[in-house]
Every structure is written in C-alpha cells, then in structure tokens.
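User: Second chain of the day. Same drill as before.
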Amino acid sequence: MKTYSAKKEDVDRRWYLIDAEGQILGRLASLIAMRLRGKHKPIYTPHVDTGDFIVVVNADKLVLTGKKWDKKVYYHHTGYMGGLKSITAKRLLEKRPEDLLFFAVKGMLPKNRLGRRLIKKLKIYAGPDHPHKAQQPEPLRT
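Assistant: Same format as last time:
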C-alpha cells in the first residue's frame, strides 16, 4: 500500500472559535499551532496546508505564569544603527494584546512559505466580538 499524500482539494477546512480568557499563553499557542497545521487530522501531510481556521477572542485576558509579565521581553530591530527595541510582555499586552498570542503561535510554526500561509488563518481579537459570524465558527474546548 502506498503512503497517502493529501492534496489541496482533499482538505476540509473548518472554522473554530477559542475563548482565551484565563488561558495560559504557551499552552494555548501550542494547541492553536497544532490546529493550524492540521496535525489533528488523519490526512495530515507535512508539506500541504491541511489545517483549520482559528478565531481567538478575549486575547487581552491571557495569563502568563510566574514573573513572566515583567521578565519576558520581546525584541525587534528598526533597521537603523542602534535600533534594537525591546518591550516587556506586560507593556505589549497594554499596547497590542493580539500580538502576544500572535508571536507565540508564529514561533511554533514552520519558518518557510507554508508557515507564512498558515499564520494568515489565525484571527485574533482583544475583545469578545469578532467579524467572522458568517463562517459560523464552532467553539473549541481548550
């Protein structure tokens, strides 16, 4: 018997809704990354996008354990000399709460063309409302 390789047409993509209120950042991010890649499906193929769409609400109510709110630092470079900028997790939650979960999930996905395509299927919102009601996302227990 030959090894099955999924094709784009074979994939049934579904929409899932996750409420991030009270969820631990890393544990939630790993669950989302697994769903985006499609590793929970029997037709999973590493080089094909077999994953689902994920809508996350209440991203501003995520939880970090220990002293990570003050100790965890995110860095980026402006491109200019001496342009290394840093921001703590607490400050990032105040300014852009969606980015906290986005960076965690993006770090768990492949660093290639497929990973860039997968991250586009993740929709994160700070509050309880989202504009994807027409897709009728199913609530996903975490």
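Residues 10 and 57 are 29 Å apart (CA to CA).

User: Great, on to the next one.
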